[in-house]
Design brief:
The chain is an alpha+beta fold. It is built from 7 helices and 10 strands. It starts with 24 loop residues before the first helix and ends in a 5-residue tail after the last helix.
């Protein structure tokens, strides 16, 4: 697997979706040498859960990225076991293969030969809901915007054995009731950026790239102690994406591709179950997405930015994987959204 790394100016992030403030991170991040490394890993995992990344390793700050792995080595070991063997002899029956003989080359298949991966290509508009472990709507004071109903705009593409995804998530203004509570409790922040609580929404961008040799459509990878696997399941119509932190299941996401019988349009339903480091409930997401034309996609994006009253200075600027800090080189505005989302088709 090849992971493309972008550096980031900051990796400090309060949990993006399901806060793990009560979780003993140090016990889980056994390989971390410092408290900062533990916090960096915590940042990465929480941002990962919010991103809705589909079967790919997120483009992460270089400080938290470990050594990637590949299906290739695993496949070669399996072929070596099957193809290799002991040399035949007088008591050995038929002559076997030399242990030192090289296995046949692996024939990596292009992802677009698999129906599920082929269907991922294109423009997707989504409506999202995030819940905590007890079933209530998620709240995050470090990102003080509603999670009960927000919007996503996603592009995806495959080329050879590579998959790329770019996300723009838009969040509506906070409710006035919640803004009043922030004021009454002396919350340190009630908005991010220059907006006004209850008046302006905000946005985040996410990015993920992965390439992997596969013979059956499965994609695997590792980032530090975090391992990801995406398996093709169902009747050529679903993907199961799982994230493991060591032996612990951290997230399990099922994506089902289906057709609306009335409109004839392609839709995608995603539900991600998340778990704490102790294996307890951490939360779940419910994503409803539909594939649209490029024109409809960008018209809807512009309309939603206006509906949520997002200031231009906050449009497509902050990195969901980079501590919600501005992405280096990004200039906020609608044109930046287009540039970010079209990166999917530059494979």
């Amino acid at each position: 697997m090849r992971v493309i790394i972008h550096s980031s100016s900051s990796i400090l992030l309060v949990a993006a979706l399901f806060l793990l403030k009560d979780v003993p991170v140090a016990a889980a991040v056994k390989g971390a040498a410092t408290i900062k490394e533990e916090e960096d890993m915590k940042v990465m995992l929480n941002a990962w859960k919010e991103s809705g990344i589909l079967g790919a390793t997120p483009v992460l700050p270089s400080a938290v990225v470990g050594t990637p792995s590949s299906n290739n080595d695993k496949l070669r070991r399996e072929l070596k076991t099957t193809y290799g063997g002991k040399k035949g002899g007088k008591k050995g029956g038929k002559k076997g293969h030399d242990d030192n003989e090289e296995p046949p080359p692996i024939e990596c298949k292009d992802l677009d030969t698999f129906p599920q991966w082929k269907e991922e290509v294109g423009y997707w508009i989504g409506e999202y809901t995030l819940l905590t472990g007890d079933g209530t709507y998620n709240t995050d004071q470090a990102w003080p915007y509603p999670y009960n109903h927000y919007a996503g705009f996603i592009t995806g593409n495959v080329e050879g054995q590579a998959y790329r995804q770019r996300n723009v998530f838009l969040y509506p203004p906070q409710t006035q009731e919640q803004c009043d509570e922030y004021a009454a409790t002396g919350a340190p922040i009630d908005v991010v950026g220059d907006g006004t609580c209850g008046v302006n929404g905000n946005s985040l961008v996410f990015a993920a790239d992965q390439s992997d040799c596969t013979t059956n459509g499965t994609i695997t990878g590792t980032v530090g102690p975090v391992a990801t696997t995406t398996d093709l399941v169902g009747a050529d119509n679903a993907l199961l994406y799982q994230v493991f932190f060591g032996p612990t299941l951290f997230q399990s996401q099922l994506t089902t591709l289906h057709t609306n019988a009335i409109t004839g349009g392609t839709q995608r339903t995603r539900t991600a179950q998340s778990f704490s480091f102790t294996g307890d409930f951490a939360g779940t997401s419910y994503y409803r997405e539909r594939k649209v034309s490029e024109m409809e996609f960008y018209q809807a994006l512009a309309s939603k930015i206006s509906e949520y009253n997002i200031l231009e200075a906050d449009v497509c600027l902050r990195d969901g994987f980079g501590g919600r800090e501005p992405v280096p080189g990004y200039t906020p505005g609608f044109d930046q959204c287009v540039e970010h989302l079209e990166q999917s088709f530059e494979l």
